[in-house]
Amino acid sequence: MTATTPSTAPQMAERPYFRWLQLAMGIICMAMIANLQYGWTLFVDPIDAKYHWGRAAIQLAFTLFVVTETWLVPVEAWFVDKYGPSIVIAFGGVMIAIAWVLNSYADSLVLLYIAAIVAGIGAGSVYGTCVGNALKWFPDRRGLAAGATAAGFGAGAAITVVPIANMIAASGYQHAFLAFGIGQGVIVFALAFFLRRPSQAMPAKKKQLNLPQTKIDFTPPQVLRSPIFWVMYLVFVMVAAGGLMAAAQIAPIAHDFKIADQPVSRLGLQMAALTFAISLDRIFDGFGRPFFGWVSDTIGREHTMFIAFGTAALMLLTLSVYGNIPVVFVLATAIYFGVFGEIYSLFPATSGDTFGVKYATTNNGMLYTAKGTASLLVPIASIVASHYGWQAVFVIAVGLNAIAALLALFVIKPMRRAFILGNEAAVEARTRDVKAA
Description:
Layout: E1 2-3, H1 18-38, H2 41-51, H3 55-71, H4 73-83, H5 85-105, H6 109-137, H7 142-155, H8 161-171, H9 173-192, E2 216-217, H10 220-224, H11 227-256, E3 263-266, E4 269-272, H12 273-299, H13 301-322, H14 326-340, H15 343-355, H16 360-375, H17 378-388, H18 390-436
Antiparallel strand pairs: 1-2, 3-4
Helix pairs in contact: 1-6, 1-7, 1-9, 2-11, 3-6, 3-16, 3-17, 4-5, 4-6, 4-16, 5-6, 5-9, 6-7, 6-16, 7-12, 7-15, 8-9, 11-14, 11-16, 11-17, 11-18, 12-13, 12-14, 12-15, 13-14, 13-18, 15-16, 17-18
């Protein structure tokens, strides 16, 4: 581990707005890959209606996508740290376009699964790079920057949910895959050439933050040997499992509750419950990520986790009891996604605070693989639902979120503070010994 020295401090006054431009382009890139995850639920039943493969078999493609998207991020992050963000994001743009083109022609589960893997590689390249770049450009606003970047992924599907649904209804899901796949890929590829990383490492301004932040840059092997990383990883898995299940299964859940096509009128709008829910979910998800990131910059990461995870448990409990009421389904899922998405801002920010800036992209990439681990539970949710109903799935998710809230406040908080202060004290002691010698 290496301590950050004052000589690495950048002179941001030279380009006061450039980092905000970098953040904005990262958000747009994230919005372009959002449909690969959040738009997927719209395609599940049309694919099943055409080929009769069964929901569980089709949802395996979703699991393969998430696993590939997350577990390969540390590898992709290594390329970012070595060659910069442009080449990795350009590669990601090409891959996401190829993936949805393949989906449009997939007439077998094997081809569907291959497309999911290609999509995962592309999405992971874009996601890990954009979040890591935000952490490097904004050490003084990590929560807000990571949240805003992740918001592109959370809310990016909001503006395209209705067009995709309409295109599926009008010309078939294959045409929707083809048109949106090519469009999204081209935009990411074009923006890739304008993304840059900071020319110098940017130390955090601790005096401006009510947060414990390390002055040491921990290497990925050192991070993997630290117990606090694995506790954070466990909590990430526990919370992500419920959100991924809801994102992948919200359409089947609405159909099984027999409310998918029932009209809901709110905020001067009237839509079918499922379409309204997905649109509102994406808006709340997108808003929640930067909001909770900003809150965590103020009151601390763990306190924010406790509030968000506790609220998520309450909303899931509401869905388990009253989810068959259309308006409750729409509002409860919206609030749930509003507090669920914050894991994609809080955990990157917490990783940067705990393990330093220099290897932030790779270290956060390793933590982000927890999302892939959690995705393995999505097919299990379908099996549990087929035997015991969706209420049972919701109750399990309630328990996971409640436990995660308690772990954040009573385990992660003291462990993380002890890790940061203990290692800084050890480095200072070694420095004094060297000087004395």
